[in-house]
């Protein structure tokens, strides 16, 4: 009797489990099926969106396939296009962005410009229905052939790399290629300073292939002289750019042969106003300042000597400063001619006062002899005073002088002797003595003449100088 309820409960539990468990598993399968359907729908939608985006922006598809599309792996790009046949023509055009600096000391210039190459490489041709080109950056340059252009007589050069290397490669469906880069070059410019600072300099930047001679590569300007373009705002502090031109030629090397060479020529004319203010005008002032001594009394020795020495030293300073900023060339420059002639005028003004002072001293000594012998002590004191302060104490000498005209006449009679000179010699001696006497007695006339001659000669020199060099 006790087993019956237990059997009944066991049968009930088994019935419930047998009925309900298939429904639970079925519901879980249904949920899994629904989730799988939703995920498949989402994946389908995402794939459609990606396909639509790729169709809208085709540039995102080509970079992933450019190597296969351009057949880069199928060719050996160590060889130039058309190897073994005719030379590959490479066209060049240049757009000058700026001339950064011109250095006279180093004889060089620095230029920034865009260098563009044009050539055709059929190995890079690709099919295209729209005939549109593909543009790449510097990362593709290492995998294809490009011309090896270098700059003759260059000292240093670099390709700009901010924020990435400034290199562009554009490939057209027919295989035509545009290769452009932005570069700064410092190159030699053989300058002639014989007319400095009134000079005009002709500089050129030369382009040439390093490895390929004219049998492998033909280098030429794309549109002749129009291939060289410049910015309108190009200006320099000391120069005015007069002309830009393009030309071509050949260069021969004994070991490798003939090469095509392209030239970027430009003419620079120097601005003169800076040197007028810094060199010519100060030199003129120093020369005119040296003339002031001609109006100072010849007895004022300290004033005239100090003025002459000051102007000479100032001219030396101007000459040295100009030479320090120039290369050490072996020929005479135009500015050297002007400065040295101006220094000569200043030096002659000092020499002029030395001559005036010497003649004045000789004149005073003769005056002492004519007035007679003064006491030895007084005569020595007067000469010492004259040598010390440059002033002649005529009043004191007149008061203490002795009238010895009669003694001189008596001495002349007693010591006189008949002359044996011919009349012509006597005439020459009398004429020379008369001129010398006039100069000695009127030495202040030298200052008077100098006030006129020095300015006239300097004006004539300036007229000749500016007429020849300008």
From TrEMBL:
Keywords recorded for this protein, A-Z: Cell membrane, Chloride, Chloride channel, Disulfide bond, Glycoprotein, Ion channel, Ion transport, Membrane, Postsynaptic cell membrane, Signal, Synapse, Transmembrane, Transmembrane helix, Transport
Residue spans crossing the bilayer: 272-295, 307-326, 338-360, 452-469
Span of domain Neurotransmitter-gated ion-channel ligand-binding: 72-271
Region: Disordered, residue numbers: 407-427
Bias type Polar residues, positions: 412-423
Main subcellular localisation: membrane
Database matches in PROSITE patterns: NEUROTR_ION_CHANNEL
Reaction(s) catalysed (UniProt annotation): chloride(in) = chloride(out)
Gene Ontology CC terms: chloride channel complex; postsynaptic membrane
Compartment(s) where it occurs, according to its Swiss-Prot or TrEMBL record: Postsynaptic cell membrane
Signal peptide: 1-26
Pfam families found in the cross-reference section: Neur_chan_LBD, Neur_chan_memb
Membrane topology, as annotated: Multi-pass membrane protein
One MF annotation (Gene Ontology) recorded for this entry: chloride channel activity
SUPFAM superfamilies named among the record's database cross-references: Neurotransmitter-gated ion-channel transmembrane pore (SSF90112), Nicotinic receptor ligand binding domain-like (SSF63712)
Residue ranges annotated for the Neurotransmitter-gated ion-channel transmembrane domain, each copy included: 279-366
Family listed: Belongs to the ligand-gated ion channel (TC 1.A.9) family.
Protein name: GABA(C) receptor
Source organism phylogeny: Eukaryota, Metazoa, Chordata, Craniata, Vertebrata
Gene behind this protein: GABRR3
């Amino acid at each position: 009797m006790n087993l019956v309820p237990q059997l009944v409960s066991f049968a009930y539990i088994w019935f419930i489990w047998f009925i309900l468990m298939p429904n639970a598993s079925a519901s879980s399968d249904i949920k899994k099926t629904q989730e799988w359907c939703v995920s498949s729908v989402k994946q389908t939608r995402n794939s459609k969106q990606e396909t639509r985006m790729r169709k809208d922006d085709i540039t995102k598809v080509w970079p992933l396939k450019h190597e296969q599309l351009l057949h880069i792996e199928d060719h050996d790009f160590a060889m130039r296009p058309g190897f073994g046949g005719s030379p590959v023509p490479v066209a060049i055009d240049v757009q000058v962005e700026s001339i950064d600096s011109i250095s006279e000391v180093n004889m060089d210039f620095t230029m920034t410009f865009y260098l563009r190459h044009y050539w055709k490489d059929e190995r890079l041709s690709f099919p295209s229905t729209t005939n549109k080109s593909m543009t790449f950056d510097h990362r593709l340059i290492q995998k294809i052939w490009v011309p090896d252009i270098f700059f003759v007589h260059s000292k240093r050069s670099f390709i700009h790399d901010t924020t990435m290397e400034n290199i562009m490669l554009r490939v057209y469906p027919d295989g035509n290629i545009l290769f452009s880069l932005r570069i700064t070059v410092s190159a030699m410019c053989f300058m002639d300073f014989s007319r400095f600072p009134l000079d005009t300099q002709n500089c050129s930047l030369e382009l040439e292939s390093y490895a390929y001679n004219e049998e492998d590569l033909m280098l030429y300007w794309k549109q002749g002289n129009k291939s060289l373009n410049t910015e309108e705002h190009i200006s320099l502090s000391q120069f005015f750019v007069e002309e830009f031109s393009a030309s071509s030629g050949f260069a021969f090397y004994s070991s490798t042969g003939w090469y095509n060479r392209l030239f970027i020529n430009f003419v620079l004319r120097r601005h003169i106003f800076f040197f007028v203010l810094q060199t010519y005008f100060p030199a003129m002032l120093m020369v005119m300042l040296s003339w002031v001594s001609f109006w100072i009394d010849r007895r004022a020795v300290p004033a005239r000597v100090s003025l002459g020495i000051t102007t000479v030293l100032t001219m030396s300073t101007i000459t040295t400063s100009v030479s320090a900023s120039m290369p050490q060339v072996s020929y005479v420059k135009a500015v050297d001619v002007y400065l040295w002639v101006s220094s000569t005028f200043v030096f002659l003004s000092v020499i002029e006062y030395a001559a005036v002072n010497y003649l004045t001293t000789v004149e005073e000594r003769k005056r002492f002899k004519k007035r007679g012998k003064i006491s030895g002590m007084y005569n020595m004191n007067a000469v010492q005073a004259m040598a010390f302060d440059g002033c002649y104490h005529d009043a004191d000498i007149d008061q203490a002088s002795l009238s010895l005209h009669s003694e001189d006449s008596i001495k002349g009679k007693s010591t006189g002797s008949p002359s044996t000179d011919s009349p012509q010699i006597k005439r020459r001696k009398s004429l020379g003595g008369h001129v010398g006497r006039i100069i000695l007695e009127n030495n202040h006339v030298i200052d008077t003449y100098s006030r006129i001659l020095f300015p006239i000669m300097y004006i004539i020199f300036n007229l000749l100088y500016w007429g020849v060099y300008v």
